[in-house]
Specification:
633 residues; alpha+beta; eight-stranded mixed beta sheet; six-stranded mixed beta sheet; 22 helices; 38% helix; globular
Amino acid sequence: MPANTETKPAEPGIAEANRAVLERFPFDDETDLENARRGFLGTAQESVVRDAEGRAVWDLEAYGFLRQDCPDTANPSLWRQSRLCSDHGLFEVVEGIYQVRGFDLSNMTLVEGERGILVIDPLISAETAAAGLALYRAHRGDRPVTGVLYTHSHVDHFGGVRGVVSDEDIAAGVPVLAPEGFLEHAVSENVYAGTAMSRRAAYMYGAVLPKGERGQIGTGLGQTTSTGAIGLIPPTLDITRTGQTETVDGIRMVFQLTPGTEAPAELNIHFPDHAALCMAENATHNLHNLLTLRGAQVRDPRVWARYLTEAIDLFADSSDVAFASHHWPVWGRAHLVAFLAEQRDLYAYLHDQTLRMLNQGLTSLEIAERMEVPPALERAWHTHGYYGSVNHNTKAVYQRYLGWFDGNPAHLWEHPPVESARRYVEFMGGAGEVLRHARQSFAEGDYRWVAQVVHHVVFADPDNDEARALQADALEQLGYGSENGPWRNFFLMGALELRHGAVGTPTATASLDLLAALTLEQLFDALAVRVDGPRSWDADIAVRFNLPDRAPVTLRLHNGVLTHVTGTGPAAADPELEITLTETDLRTVLLGAVTPTDLAARDGVKVSGDPGRLTELLGHLAAPDPHFAIVTP
């Protein structure tokens, strides 16, 4: 383990910059504080939520330190936001609509119907969702869950569903509503690139960072991610168009579909009998991500802004409160219209001004440095970059239109990181000379440059303890000064792993429910991205699966590519092995729960050919690495 494993205090320049934030923004405006605490009914008596084995998956009081004044090691604006997000308990939005806040990264909303409750967005983990439901029942009575609604396809809005309903409840008629395309996007995002996203999410949310004034203080959108059991119950009713109305347990709802905004499948909900508007995650008390740092497809701010305009047109005249699946509501028609309009203008401005500058020849890095939002927007707390940032959102817009290449041929064929690092360090006179200059830059407060240049020393020689220590110190100072929660967490996680080594990924999103929700086509695709291509160049294996009530499927591994063809047409290779089996047995063997040899011995399974060929095919799949290095090679 490298030396220098302890956190450091804020350097004078960072402390001074953080104190200057207090003079720049209206910290005496307590509107958000009043709204965040409005309607509070109570919270749980037990602060720690545990799983069945007694492991803590959430701690309601982990952020109690935020009640203190902001220290030098945190940006006061982020400290303020995190303090607001850390309030936990059950809150009344309006009569009949309640929210559980502070029990996970997201909010769980409960709408009372004629017989029971509709649960909207049941958090990440079954344990936190169950604890939230228990809190609601302690204050409002033991009402049954009579419906579930997912507003969109991100795991913090469906993962805890098994904490509020069971398969038996669904079989008995409890509906599960979701926007069209929900299941495809929920599953594909968390399975195809799920390992890489989960590893990067460990940096983004900082769930394993020590919580405290020198550690994790929140993510801006919420505090962090719970680490319990993630599940998924597929929707039973799709919302397919804007204006669609549904009634669940007497609760009338009017829907607005908003695909391609904060999620590829998302919707807003108007409750006409409550004069209440649920904005899902399309309008929250921060600038959101156009490209989340954990990784995702780039979102479309132009479309996002247009849907916010549409929401105002459709629902503002009949709404007295707007609430979302993160943060706190906005009450009053004039206030909610201003809130939604400012959110709209924020995304539209970033989109339009990025396009203006890229059409003048500026690169993504140059645009990000030049971009400033209008003062009128910056004065609104809810436009601040606590979760998304102006800097990385403008880079996302550039990427959406022009991709990774900035047009400069010098950047077209660069060396990969380790090879570049070795050459940089050699050109700069060796590691000792680089570190000498870097220490001077650190003393001058140029932590961005220290992180940028010492990175090369670490990648050229990852065992250089002096370089790792200096890099950790620079990242730590950058974290202390960040207004953006994920930036702070990324910087501090980098410092932590440079000092202590890789700490791993606490939450794996590819749960059994998510895997079970894959269509066979998605399952085949998920296997294809695990093929070790170079090791499979010379393999040529074809296996056909004969399934009841559907056309046969042929898997072929050839040229390092795993393809699947439905039917027996010319695209289907002649199989060396045919297996007749149920879809359940097929999923079992493809997911590795049973060997091909054991499968062949099962009742009802018929095999023609050598089952060892399927074993050989599956042997070409490589296991993903959930703990891959990020700040070291």
